[in-house]
Every structure is written in structure tokens, then in C-alpha cells.
């Protein structure tokens, strides 16, 4: 092997595919929503009268930490890093059961569940799109090594 090996990041001629940009924006939106929700729960935990202050603080911190996954994935997708698709897909798969639970509620959570389900499904479609896969330099099974004839 020579020192001039193929770079690990794909070289795209032209602009970043719009589908990839949209997927990154949706992941960033989810991350920002988690941060806002976590900060809101923290503020209510400290200033309001929660049933359990420790539980409110723990829940708020957990949401803020969980926000790192989609935010890092969004940054990686915008930078065309192939590793970023995994965390982005995991985020969407985790969002689907949350959306389902919100849809089961008899409250104002139902519109949130609808929005989350739409964003998660749309993101999954964008992330598994062949154009996105090519842009990230992800090869399918059996295409990992060598050239095929």
C-alpha cells in the first residue's frame, strides 16, 4: 500500500445533497428541543414546587445530556462524516416510542407526539436514502473491500 491512500472522507463534486442537509437540520432541531425541555424542567425544579425536586433536576439534566447525541450527529452529517449516520438513526429510533407514548396521552402532548413522529419518520427516510449514503461514503454489505467486477 502506498502513502497515497483513498481519503476517509468522501469527496463530493458540487454542493452537499439537500437530503443530507435536511436530515442534519431535523437532528439539530430534535437536539435543541431536548435542550429546551431539559432547561425548562430544571428551571421548574428549582423555582417551582415539583412533587420531587431531585427527580425534576435529574430529569432535566438527563434531557440536556441526551441532546448531545442528535446535536453531534447533526454536526457530523453537515461535515459529511460517515460515523454520524449511526447516532442520527439511533436518535430517530428512540424518538418513535416516545412519540407513540405522547400520542396515547389525553392531553396537549398529542400534537407533540404527532410532530415528533413526523420528524422521526422523515429523518429516517432522509438518512437511509441512497443519495445520503453515497454522500457519506457508506458502502453496502459486501462492498466494503476491493473492487467488484
Automatic annotation (TrEMBL):
The chain crosses the membrane at residues 20-43, 55-74, 86-103, 109-129. Keywords: Membrane, Transmembrane, Transmembrane helix. The keyword Membrane applies. It comes from the Bacteria. The keyword Transmembrane applies. This is Integral membrane protein.
Amino acid at each position: 500500500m502506498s502513502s497515497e491512500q483513498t481519503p476517509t472522507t468522501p469527496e463530493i463534486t458540487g454542493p452537499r445533497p439537500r437530503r443530507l442537509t435536511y436530515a442534519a437540520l431535523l437532528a439539530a432541531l430534535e437536539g435543541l428541543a431536548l435542550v429546551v425541555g431539559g432547561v425548562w424542567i430544571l428551571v421548574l425544579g428549582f423555582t417551582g414546587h415539583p412533587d420531587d425536586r431531585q427527580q425534576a433536576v435529574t430529569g432535566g439534566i438527563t434531557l440536556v445530556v441526551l441532546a448531545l447525541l442528535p446535536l453531534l450527529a447533526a454536526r457530523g452529517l453537515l461535515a459529511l462524516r460517515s460515523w454520524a449516520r449511526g447516532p442520527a438513526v439511533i436518535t430517530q429510533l428512540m424518538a418513535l416510542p416516545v412519540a407513540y407514548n405522547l400520542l396515547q396521552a389525553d392531553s396537549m402532548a398529542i400534537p407533540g407526539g404527532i410532530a415528533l413522529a413526523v420528524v422521526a419518520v422523515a429523518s429516517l427516510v432522509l438518512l437511509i436514502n441512497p443519495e445520503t449514503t453515497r454522500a457519506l461514503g457508506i458502502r453496502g454489505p459486501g462492498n466494503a473491500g476491493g473492487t467488484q467486477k
